[in-house]
Amino acid sequence: MTSTQQDRARLLHELHRPGDPVLLANVWDAAGARLVAAAGAAALATASASVSWTLGYPDGDRADLAEVLAQTARIVRAAGALPVTADLESGFAETAAGVGANIAALLATGAVGVNLEDGRPGPDGPLRPVEEAAARVAAARAAADAAGAGLFVNARTDVFLLAVGDPADRLDHAVARARAYLAAGADGIFVPGVTDPATVAALAGAVPAPLNVLAGPGAPAVPELAKLGVARVSLGPGLARAAYAALRLAAEEAYGPGTYGRIADGLGYQELNALLTD
Predict the structure, then answer these.
(1) pLDDT digit string (tens) for 48-86?
(2) Which of 63, 193, 202, 246 has the lowest CB atom count within 10 Å?
């Protein structure tokens, strides 16, 4: 790991401040990385769904890992001095040892953070047993430490997102999983699927580490999440969904009435070309 990569890793850690959250408008390609950076981002993140879609796969551990890593490397290159954290879903491996090997490969892209989720695609889901998920976090931590990398390991629990168990028990369930993942070496905890302020505040108070939430329409604004003690706010695949919606509307207009109003406000060719000219 280079000293520059280590510097970016330290910066990513420093950006996780409860009450002053880092906002991650997740990207999926180099042009998007440059646009989000120009908008004022302090760090960049990928979203597995967005990357999978642009590579031609559905989300849910279905993409080819080599392609995901190649796309991550392009985003890291476009990010310049900004730290990049990558969404590796559940680790793209059947075993904890496999997760560790994939973390080593991720570090080679220049990424300095990773998301690892406890959701399990397929009939054996929805969640991995907590001991199994914690072992995968521990393998990621060990691989990063062996490489001398200050990788920010963001452990995600899908208790709320997948509506696991009795609603009355979800907060305690999520907190118990969070504590297990922190004990295994995670640096932060991601709990998507939570938008009501009372639950967000309860999580922030109960999880002894930076709390990451997924935001979008219907969620509290970033300043409100800051007041609740959140340290990281992610938009997930929100930007990709908005971009693809705009594409569909423009295509439907062109193939319907044959007009071009939807592309009138598009970014200019020269602007986009200059964006990717170093």
Answers:
(1) 999 999 999 999 999 999 999 999 999 999 999 999 999
(2) 246
Question: What tokens does 236 get?
Answer: 């997930």
Is the distance from CB of 257 to CB of 46 less than 8 angstroms?
no
Annotate 173-216 with three-state secondary structure: HHHHHHHHHHHCCCCEEECCCCCCHHHHHHHHHHCCCCEEEECC
Tell me the sheet residues that pair with 115: 87, 154
Residue type, 173: H
Q: How far, in whole angstroms, is CA 263 from its chain's centroid?
A: 29
- At 111, the amino acid letter reads A
Q: Cα angle vertex 83, ends 78, 84, to 5°?
A: 70
Q: What is the pLDDT of residues 151-208, one digit of tens each?
A: 999 999 999 999 999 999 999 999 999 999 999 999 999 999 999 999 999 999 999 9
Q: What is the DSSP string of 98-153?
A: HHHHHHHHHHTTT--EEEEE-B--STT-SB--HHHHHHHHHHHHHHHHHTT---EE
Span 30-44, pLDDT tens digits: 999 999 999 999 999
